[in-house]
Write a structure and sequence with these properties.
Blueprint: H1 2-14, H2 18-25, H3 40-47, H4 49-73, H5 76-91, H6 104-114, H7 116-133, H8 136-155, H9 157-179, H10 185-191
Helix pairs in contact: 1-4, 1-5, 2-3, 2-4, 3-4, 4-5, 4-6, 5-6, 5-9, 6-7, 7-8, 8-9
């Protein structure tokens, strides 16, 4: 029962279109501008860092709250279930016509609960690489790439495998969004 409740809570939390709401507050419809992705990264590109930080925080908070709910309802595995469901909720949101983003920030927020030490170290890698490369994109890539080896050393193989499954979900969402054909301007947004 804990798994079912974790999945439901996670999906509902993930369905809150945080980045869309932040962008809308600034008069921008993320689905109709930039790459059309209604997530934090497109918000950053359209709004700039000063106004987009809330989109990153909101998308990440969905994963964090889902992970905490999962822990409250059971153990680390119900927490992984809740974070995975939040990622699916972000990608296929109940409150935004099932047209969502790629769930990267929801994953990051969830990892802060699922594997706090490896996740914090990966965030540090992100910050350092971003500063050295003067590119948040490169920092983000380095941080995500660092999560698995750090977690393998600190948390062991079973939990790292579960993290790998969540990362595969992100990879699948990137592939689906790139390959889905668009038939109109309104359909084009979530497929890129």
């Amino acid at each position: 029962m804990g798994y079912v409740l974790s999945a439901i809570v996670g999906y509902v939390l993930g369905s809150v279109p945080a980045a869309l709401l932040v962008a809308r507050r600034h008069g921008v419809d993320l689905r109709r501008t930039g790459d059309g992705n209604p997530g934090a990264w497109n918000a950053l590109e359209q709004l700039g860092p000063r106004r987009a930080w809330a989109a990153f925080a909101g998308d990440g908070l969905k994963g964090t709250l889902a992970g905490l709910a999962g822990w409250w309802l059971g153990d680390v595995w119900t927490a992984y279930t809740a974070v995975g469901a939040a990622m699916l909720g972000h990608a296929f949101p109940l409150f935004a016509h099932l047209r969502g983003g790629k769930a990267v920030m929801t994953f990051v927020g969830g990892m802060l609960v699922l594997a706090p030490v490896p996740a914090a170290l990966a965030v540090a890698v992100c910050v350092v690489v971003s500063l050295l490369a003067r590119s948040f994109a490169w920092g983000a890539r380095a941080g995500v790439a660092a999560v698995v080896p750090l977690q393998l050393v600190l948390d062991g193989a079973p939990r790292t495998a579960a993290t790998g499954a969540l990362m595969c979900l992100i990879g699948a969402l990137f592939a689906v969004r790139r390959s889905a054909p668009a038939t109109s301007a309104s359909d084009a947004a979530p497929t890129t």
